[in-house]
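Listing S7. Sequence submitted for prediction.
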Amino acid sequence: MMKPESVSSRTSRFAITHVGQEREDAIHVIWGHGWGQSSTALFPLAESLGRFACSSLIDFPGFGNSLLPPNSWGTADYADAVAEWLKSTSCGSCVWVGHSFGGRVGIQLAARHPGLLSGMVLIAGAGLPRRRSLSEKFRVLCRRYAFRAAKLVVAEGPRRELLRARFGSSDYRTAGPLRPILTRVVNEDLTAVAKTVECPVLLLYGDRDRDTPPEIGERLHRALPNSKLIVLQGFDHHTILLEGRHQVLRQILGFLEGIQK
């Protein structure tokens, strides 16, 4: 993998890895990774796309080679930082490709900065609350209130971390200093934001995804004015980037061809 470049916005510094030679007539693809990951998760896809487009892979502030953001950001803050960098470059036609959390940032980017993106591909895109059965809701509430009650009698320290390991999600357990951001992000509902996105959007989901199941894609498809939904068979939230990489690449190439026409 190539050495990342460090870039600055008014609010943060973050790392960007460039792949492929920028050409005047080529689409520039901007890649946004999922929560708890970095640009390395998307590098194989970007590298495979190298003959058709130049790419820039972002390490969001707080991930990979990037520094922590200055405070508890929401997805709008991440989007604004990316937009400031994009506006300072000579990139022509830009397409955003975001996985999971990167999809949240992409929706905010397209909505808050109309005209900056020519299109967007969301892979297992997040941004809408999960729909749960009554029994699932009951279990979640029980765990939440049990954790809150236990915190009242357990001081911050190793024992509190054991509580987080027992009651928190895997993302929460490993989030460390990013926990306030994670809590803020997962409670965002981007339905209203998505309705203002003007650029064409391709939605790709795996039929076995339990983190961002296809029903989220269906609701995003209804919210996004100019979108297409494709559900790929046999893949979950992470394998869609691994075993499903060639199918995802084929869909992205078809989408980029449509953008160029």
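Caption to Listing S7: primary sequence and predicted structure tokens for the chain studied. The longest helix spans residues 134-151. The beta strands are 5-8, 13-19, 28-32, 54-59, 94-99, 119-123, 201-206, 227-232.
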